[in-house]
Design goal:
The complex is a heterodimer of chains A (115) and B (112). Chain A has no helices and 11 strands. Chain A has 115 residues and is mainly beta. By secondary structure, chain B is mainly beta. Chain B is globular and about 45 Å long. The chains are: A mainly beta (115), B mainly beta (112). Chains A and B meet through strand 4, strand 5 and strand 10 of A and strand 3, strand 4, strand 8 and strand 9 of B.
Chain lengths: 115, 112
Amino acid sequence: DTGVSQNPRHKITKRGQNVTFRCDPISEHNRLYWYRQTLGQGPEFLTYFQNEAQLEKSRLLSDRFSAERPKGSFSTLEIQRTEQGDSAMYLCATRSTGLRPDTQYFGPGTRLTVL
Amino acid sequence: GESVGLHLPTLSVQEGDNSIINCAYSNSASDYFIWYKQESGKGPQFIIDIRSNMDKRQGQRVTVLLNKTVKHLSLQIAATQPGDSAVYFCAELPRGDDKIIFGKGTRLHILP
């Protein structure tokens, strides 16, 4: 257990529905990252925050995806009008900027299945 | 349990033997190279990293080798144990960047 928690762990939804995932970071970690992992692939970067500011978004993050970190602590990732191609594991990672830049601690992920 | 990857290259190793997992990377400007272990149903777990100015780094039972000439990274696990069964990913962190770029994974299967 890295100390990063994600909820829910599994989500099954029907195409067209909206879903929201939550990530709770290690408390002193000011950077928070979202990645997506499809079966057979390594995780791919989606977006990251420093405190409450969203600093970078990948081209993978379509306009149906939105991420927030309103108080600089937990973060949410919302997918609107889900599509079957959104089925994946959504991983959250966090780090403190006082640590080496490659020191990102990953949560257990939320597995999304879109029917 | 759920599978991290269904169509990954698989390395089968006898328990107690050494394992060597290889990876080719693409970005010459990467500052850090990292190996992660991912067990079924879990997120990637940091194993060891190496900076671009190094050739070799050792940890507990693991060694990472970096060959910048041919852009090759390897992970050696000594005396492989059943608990080492997992998918292993190499990854890189480009200089000045903050997002980790993951390579293809390799499934390590331990034979009894």
